[in-house]
Write a structure and sequence with these properties.
Layout lengths: L1 H14 L2 H22 L2 H4 L4 H14 L20 H12 L5 H25 L2 H12 L2 H5 L10 H17 L4 H12 L10 H18 L2 H31 L3 H11 L9 H20 L10 H24 L6 H20 L13 H18 L1 H20 L14 H14 L6 E6 L8 H8 L16 E6 L5 H5 L4 H5 L2 E8 L5 E7 L12
Parallel strand pairs: 1-2
Antiparallel strand pairs: 2-4, 3-4
Helix pairs in contact: 2-6, 2-7, 4-5, 4-20, 5-6, 6-7, 6-9, 7-17, 9-10, 9-11, 9-16, 10-12, 11-16, 14-15, 14-16, 15-17, 16-17, 17-18, 19-20
């Protein structure tokens, strides 16, 4: 059996061109590097803050029959995403025995798989060598790595975006059936982050071009196919939106208002004129392009010359991109490169309209197109400028890899001060201190204002002795306060936080966690009882 497999491998390898052989070796090395960066010490470095606690609580609820109709709330705009990510998390949480490492490992595996998939899709869109270079650069991308080392809804976006790019390319090249796949992929990606709405622009432009060329060719059969599969795609998108639409109507259009605020900025400030808006958008495109193409390589904040180098590279990218477009205009790579370029251009323009700070997780969906464009630029330099171009291309690739592996860039590999196991052990200590027949409530005082204590609450909810619901805090027999800041008794007990204010406070004890919070165990004050406090 092994000999047969070896013979098949040898036959397959011998049929490859030298460029394809080089590409597979490069992608194999890239996948190994990517897996190492994404998995090493992942448990002690994985982020498990309030958002992760919230998400894992919801996934745990799904496993126990609580159906989620809306997804995570966004940090800006007070919007809610779709629930897709919660349902993705649930089986992985179950497989890990309710340990939050399950969804985190699933995200890490998705990040690793994205590397060879980027090559597989990219070789069809822009060619073997550009795709292999893109996979190598993506494998060590600090942004790509950081957002595959913990569980969060934007993190799987690169893989879904590759599906969207591939389906758009296939719809243009072959059957119109792929337009329904485009719609499904788009419905998926906008449930991961709303900025990914911009991904509709390149796909929509290709759809319009497909309709136009089909109409001009008077191809009635394909016209019917486009109509059928476009209708099916729109139906799939609308179905995925139904829970969010119902939620929006029920809660005073919270999502639609938040969406408007997200892109329009502060509603209390005066609206600029159309000319002022267009001028600002034009100016912002430089910064957004720098972010989308270069700041994802790392090294953003450590030297002024980084911005100078990248501004020069932006000029190189524009010239090389136009050069590649001209050279490939009537080749097999025309549609693929136009799709990649349109994705970058429309996203940069769209991001320029946004008035706030564009964080890295906003554009995780854009990483595949950005690195594929970089691969094309490197190859174009080498082909157009001869020996000098090859030197420049090698130098640029070395620059990208160097930035991605700098010690200052590898902060995500350093252990966190407070790990998921610390949250778990603190929750276990709380359970040890509370009698089994005592109903208790939980609140959390910290700088991040996570009053529900979601990271701690999850482990308590997953135990045999969960806390009461938030609305029942005032009637619980005991209130547990996880006090990170403030910690002193007078500030903690006098905190204006609602859960603390409404609770009738009687005797209390405290426990200090080494290098962690101070725990307050407050018994319910009965009517007529005096305040007597003891510290443990």
């Amino acid at each position: 059996m092994m000999q047969q497999w070896w013979q098949r491998y040898r036959t397959w390898w011998q049929r490859l061109t030298s460029a394809e052989q080089w590409a597979w070796v490069t992608v194999s090395v890239a996948t190994f590097l990517g897996a190492t960066y994404r998995l090493i010490d992942i448990r002690v470095t994985m982020q498990f803050l309030a958002d992760q606690g919230r998400d894992v609580i919801t996934a745990y609820g799904i496993l126990h029959g609580d159906i989620a109709l809306v997804g995570p709330s966004t940090s800006v705009g007070s919007m809610f995403l779709g629930p897709l990510y919660y349902y993705f998390m649930a089986p992985w949480l179950a497989l890990a025995g309710n340990d939050p490492i399950g969804p985190t490992l699933a995200v890490a595996v998705i990040g690793i798989v994205t590397i060879p998939v980027l090559y597989w899709v990219g070789r069809r869109l822009v060619g073997v060598v550009p795709a292999a270079l893109a996979a190598l650069a993506f494998a060590v991308s600090p942004v790509a790595i950081e957002y595959t080392r913990f569980s969060w809804n934007p993190n799987p976006a690169p893989l879904v975006m590759l599906l969207l790019l591939y389906a758009t390319w296939k719809a243009w090249k072959s059957s119109a059936f792929w337009w329904v796949v485009v719609a499904i992929a788009w419905a998926m990606i906008i449930q991961l982050h709303y900025v990914a709405l911009l991904s509709l622009a390149p796909a929509g432009l290709f759809w319009l071009a497909d309709v136009w060329r089909t109409w001009r060719a008077k191809d009635s059969q394909r016209q019917k196919q486009i109509a059928l599969w476009t209708g099916a795609g729109i139906g799939a998108v609308l179905v995925s939106w139904l829970p969010l639409v119902a939620f929006d109507f029920r809660f005073n259009h919270q999502i639609s208002k938040g969406f408007a605020d997200f892109f329009n900025g502060d509603p209390n400030t005066a609206s600029p004129s159309v000319l002022q808006s267009l001028s600002r958008v034009f100016r912002e495109q430089h910064g957004r392009a720098m972010h989308a193409f270069f700041e994802i390589w790392g090294g953003k904040d450590w030297s002024p010359w980084f911005r100078t180098i990248n501004s020069s590279l932006l000029v190189v990218y524009v010239v090389a991109g136009v050069s590649a477009l001209i050279r490939w205009w009537k080749s097999r790579w025309q549609a693929g490169f136009v799709l990649v370029a349109l994705t970058m251009v429309t996203s940069v323009i769209g991001l320029a309209w946004y008035k706030g700070v564009v964080f890295h997780h906003y554009i995780t969906y854009l990483l595949p197109a950005s690195y594929l464009f970089t691969g094309v630029v490197l190859v174009e330099l080498a082909r157009r400028l001869g020996f000098v171009g090859k030197v420049l291309a090698v130098g640029m690739l070395a620059y990208i890899l160097w930035l991605g592996t700098l010690p200052t860039t590898l902060n995500y590999l350093r252990p966190l001060g407070w790990t998921v196991d610390d949250y778990k052990s603190t929750a276990e200590l709380i359970l040890e201190r509370i009698p089994e027949d005592t109903e208790y409530a939980l609140t959390h005082l910290s700088d991040i204002r996570d009053y529900r204590g979601l990271s701690y609450r999850y482990f308590l909810l997953a135990s045999d002795h969960p806390p009461v619901a938030l609305e029942d805090t005032g009637s619980a027999e005991m209130l547990v306060i996880v006090a990170e800041n403030p910690r002193q008794a007078n500030e903690v007990l006098g905190s204006p936080v609602y859960e603390v204010v409404i609770y009738p406070k009687g005797e209390y004890t405290t426990v200090d966690i080494p290098e962690g919070p101070r725990l307050y165990f407050i018994e319910r004050k009965e009517e007529g009882a005096s305040d007597t406090n003891a510290a443990l």
